[in-house]
Amino acid sequence: MLLTHVFKKGNISLQTNGLENIQLQIENNKIDLNFLQKEQLRTLLELEAKMEEEPTLNKLRKLKDIAEKLKQNRLSITVSFKGQRILTLGYGAKPTVSPMITETDAIQINSLLDLMKLAS
Questions:
Q1: Separation of alpha carbons 71 and 35, rounded Å
Q2: Given CB 3.0 to 4.6 Å as the disulfide criterion, which of 23, 42, 63, 109 pairs with 98?
Q3: Mean pLDDT, residues 18-24
Q4: 94: CB partners within 8 A, 6+ apart
């Protein structure tokens, strides 16, 4: 939660070889992480999968714990791909169906179809 307490407002753009890959925007206790290239998002998902060889339910529980801590601190993180919101964690999450899967109201799957496409 330190990032939003250190930075009150700002934008960061990450590039490799002159190609913009990730946009990070921080404002009003909200972090927006926008992936512009599918490869970077897939790399992040693959690294996470390799680092933690544990069941998906355990990973979901960890994500749930993070999301609930964000919500308690009135903070939000959104993950997008090319501006299309895929996932919202924390205070800004307003889930409808996803609590049946995630067992929390602190995770909103904004686009299950896009999330599944990007993860495969």
A1: 23
A2: 109
A3: 89
A4: 88, 108
What integer is the mean pLDDT of 36-48? 69
Taking the C-alpha atoms of residue 111 and residue 108, their distance in angstroms, rounded to an integer, is: 9
- Closest to 31 (Cα-Cα) out of 48, 6, 62: 6
Q: How many domains does the chain have?
A: 1
Range of the domain at 47: 2-119
Residues 55-65: tens digit of each pLDDT: 555 666 778 88
Number of H helices, E strands in the chain: 5, 6
State how far the alpha carbon of 84 is from the alpha carbons of 8, 10, 113, in Å.
24, 20, 12
Task: Determine the distance from the C-alpha atom of residue 52 to the mean position of all C-alpha atoms in its chain, rounded to a whole number.
Answer: 17
Query: What is the separation, in whole angstroms, between the first and last Cα of the chain?
Result: 29
| Whether the predicted pLDDT of 4 surpasses 80 | no
Alpha helices in 1-120 (DSSP H): 2-6, 38-51, 56-72, 99-102, 112-119
